[in-house]
Here is the input.
Amino acid sequence: MSKQGILRVAVSGATLWWVGCGDVPERAEEVVPVSRAVATRAEVPSSPLRLRTLDDALLEVDAAVPGFGGMYYDEKGQLVVRLVHASAAPAASRAIAAVFGQEKIPAGGVVTEPATRTFAQLKALHARITPSVLSQAGVVLTDVDEKTNRVAIGIERAEVRSGIEKVIERLGVARDAIDIVEVGPILPTNVQGGWRPINGGIQIETPGKYCTLGFPALQGGTLGFVTNSHCTQTQGGVESTPAYQAVYPDLAGVETTDPVYGGGGNCPAGRICRDSDSAFFSASTTVNPLVAMTPGAFNLSISSWLEVPGKVLYPSQGQVVYKTGRSSGTTSGTIQWACATVNSGGTPHTYFCNYIATSPQQNGAPGDSGSPVYFLSGNTAQLTGLMWGSGAEPWNFAFAPLGSIQNELGIVPYCQGFVGC
Here is the structure.
């Protein structure tokens, strides 16, 4: 994030340059700041005592035992060996012990099941189909499944199946040697990954944008969550924007409340105003009253889930607040401007009684829009606002106070004990 032309802050009626925290054009990769050092992965030296992979070891057994179809542990903890020829069981036990060590063979010996194909045949089939199959959208994995004595193709959802069937047909491989199974998407275990139930501080995707889920909330009897209005398809006004977690097509909720911006009265001439950049989404999946926390700035791994026992409607100048966002993780700032009238730079929007928290280090980035702002105490978060902008000189983030959000949306946070607070 450049220090030029991002944020200029002054008192009352100042201009806050909104950096489009929710917008990542064409979902491009963001530039990694210098502070986000990437550790070089150490190469693990090879050892003559250890094979490189499990499949390498199984291929060695296959080479020693004609008809070896693989092995797995069943629900009783028994080692099951698949064999084309049951008479090869003694030879298979000896080969497994030689390759894996005698401790691999249970005291009661192995259990055998029939196999249609050898492990080597399945491994060759796996190698043949994998480049074509994994290049298809919605495919999660390919694997030699020793339990079924087939090659498995894992897909995210049922709609992907027909396209994979066509690929298999084009490759001309034996269809009865392949299983297509739904396994769901595998996403990183961090704030940009997929989570069920959904919680505050994790990534959401709306059409054309990445943002952050602010906090779970109740609107009357409806359970949902809050994020920024500018993360919706039209800022201000309801057009039923879908929000996905972490990405399409995993629907998390649909926009149901997003007040329009208006002019006149105390609103500066030529601008449109609200008290908060916020919108409420009715949830389409399970929700937990938690907020994600990461180890620090630009570390996106989740270190803990903070319980939310309560809230602070309007914080005060000089207090330290935290936020967790999908781009910069958990950062903090000291409230320098409290209940200020703030312009969003580059847009016509102005906010009454909003806050700006500053820090010596970068504490916000594109994609953090909608981040929950809270007071941190041990393993709990007292909610106090919703971030909507960030910038530099000094590094800072802007947020609407929880009191204003409650008033505009008619919500209360969903808190510890699965109740509104």
Notes: Residues 119-182 form a domain with the GMP Synthetase; Chain A, domain 3 fold (CATH 3.30.300.50). The radius of gyration is 27 Å.
